[in-house]
Amino acid sequence: MDAPASTIIDTHRAVETPEGVELNLRLAGPVVRFYAWGIDLLIRLAVYIVLGIVLGILSIGLGNVSAGLFLVAVFLLEWFYPVYFELKSAGATPGKRRLGIRVLRDDGTEVDAGASVIRNLLRAADFLPLFYGFGLAAMLADRDFRRLGDLAAGTVVVYREQTPLPDTVPEAPPLAPPAVLTTAEQHALLQYAERAGELSPERAVELADLLQPLTGERGETGRRRLLQYANWLVGRR
Amino acid sequence: MKQDAFVKRHAGDWERFERWLAQAGLKQPPETVQQEAPDIPHLYRRLCHHLALARSRHYSAHLVDRLERLVLAGHQRLYQARRASLAAVAEFVGRRFPARVRAEWRLVLLAALVFYVPLAGTFAAAWHDPDFVYSLMAPEQVARFELMYSDEGQKKLGRLRASDDDFAMFGFYIRNNIGIGFQTFAGGVFAGLGSLFFLAANGLFIGVVGGHLVQAGHAENFFSFVAGHSALELTAIVLCGAAGLRLGAALVRPGPLSRRDALRLAARPALEMVYGAALMLVGAAFIEAFWSSTQAIPPAVKYGVGLAGWGVLLLYFLLAGRGRAA
Description:
heterodimer, A: mainly alpha, two-stranded antiparallel ribbon, two-stranded antiparallel sheet, about 55% helix, elongated, B: mainly alpha, 2 domains, 13 helices
């Protein structure tokens, strides 16, 4: 049996569903989240500018009503822009969507209104003392990169796509491995096969020799054997 | 069972689930699943079973990977929170909010003390000592407030301030006051200290301005302006502070829970108070912009309405939503 994912030192978080299976979420770190925030900031600034121009023109007829509307809009954008998009489009503001990340509750389900509002109101605390200082400190101290708002709301930010294993194993006549391999061992073998083309032939053979107990072969034959196993593992028959 | 046989036997199920995921999209509320695809939950549970089998039998990584992605997508589609409805809002205003405030009365009392004691202190100090105000505020700021509430300022306000200016002020109050409320709440995550700070700071500021204006002889102008919205606005700030203190209390005294879990559990009830306070601040902004600034209404009427507001609010928090089943 594999080691449970939670013991791996990695940016994965294992979540157990009510059905008793474990799911892996890939957590998003501070840098990608900062970029997403930057994109959202630019979008908001663009909206302010457009709104300013439109309401500026309308103020000829509306007078200071447009100033009031502008302030209300600023208030809503400041506090509820992320809430709106996190609820509307599966936990992702436009910036997060662009970078392929999203907000989930820490049980792996979609973020709900309460959680989204909490994490975005507490943004005010994360932002202190300067430019998300406390938020960054909390993210670095937490295993799951959660800022204060995430901790209170019980949310995590994860990558949207569980990237499928790439299908770039070089073709070879498939052959079943002589023993049952664990999932981790299969992954190692597949990664070897994918990188086989980039390795120098000598290095590829050297690595393949390590698996002589499995293949029963050394040298070039052993290397080819591993590629055959890999082909079998990706389902070629 | 060999992997090939396993795939052959169950691939139909997986493809059906994939098709459902693709066409169901995100917009479809979970309740409709029951009507339109009643066997999907069952199919999903079978899929979970397949994933567990595939893992324990060490089937190929590609197969496990595919099943994992299907289960994760299904998990997120099938387990969703209920959306808010209009009835839920009415239920919130009529029962949950006042009940929540009553349940948290100790923190509300603490927040009120931290807010009103400095307020009363600086009010009294600035009333008796004309120079006290300058120890807390810049002279230009004081001059602006004095002008605003002087008779000339009020006349100007009454004559010139048109309804469009009222609306501009409405926007200002929304942004400024609700922002202060949210900030006071958020500060609670620092063991409550941020909330205590904002409560006390706002208390000091409001008190010193009021006291100084009374000292300067603008009592009637000042009180007739603030009377109308005072109940909603001051109470809402106190409630935001109490909500922040709820977060802080969870961190200071987590009880048998870890601090992390205690914070999470405290955030939901705290948020109820913030929602309620935000609604109150919207109401306060309306009154402040369109009623408090009107010069046509005699001060006596404004005092009466203001006092009535405090009375109604007190009754609301004491009585609303009592005696009905939870």
